[in-house]
């Protein structure tokens, strides 16, 4: 893939990350709970049963990770490391492992 397409996907992932981060923060601060109540097990379980919020968190993880991976790739490329394919493959493997744990821990 050429640099223009990668830059386009970097920008798209950044914009989508910002959108889902806004959803996440609005869900956190829309309730008048303090930090201890907001992070209690019952409150977290309640919010994670909301499939819209659970999907938004998953998409936030995916888009933020894609954005970060492309940023790390570009940084390595700028420092003269041309073969960054292994780094990108490793980071996407980590993403799939994180998604596996995310989707299997809330059943």
Automatic annotation (TrEMBL):
Keywords: Heme, Iron, Membrane, Metal-binding, Transmembrane, Transmembrane helix. Pfam families: Sdh_cyt. GO terms for cellular component: membrane. The chain crosses the membrane at residues 9-31, 51-72, 84-103. Its main location: membrane. One of its GO terms (molecular function) is metal ion binding. SUPFAM superfamilies: Fumarate reductase respiratory complex transmembrane subunits (SSF81343). The keyword Membrane applies. It is found in: Membrane. This is Succinate dehydrogenase. The lineage of its organism: Archaea, Thermoproteota, Thermoprotei, Sulfolobales, Sulfolobaceae.
């Amino acid at each position: 893939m050429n640099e223009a397409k990668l830059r386009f996907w970097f920008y798209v992932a950044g914009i989508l990350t910002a959108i889902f981060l806004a959803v996440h923060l609005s869900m956190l601060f829309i309730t008048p709970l303090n930090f201890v109540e907001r992070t209690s097990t019952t409150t977290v379980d309640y919010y994670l049963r909301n499939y819209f919020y659970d999907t938004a968190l998953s998409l936030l993880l995916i888009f933020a990770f894609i954005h970060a991976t492309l940023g790390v790739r570009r940084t390595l490329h700028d420092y003269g490391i041309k073969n960054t394919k292994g780094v990108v493959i490793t980071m996407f493997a980590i993403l799939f492992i994180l998604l596996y744990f995310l989707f299997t821990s809330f059943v």
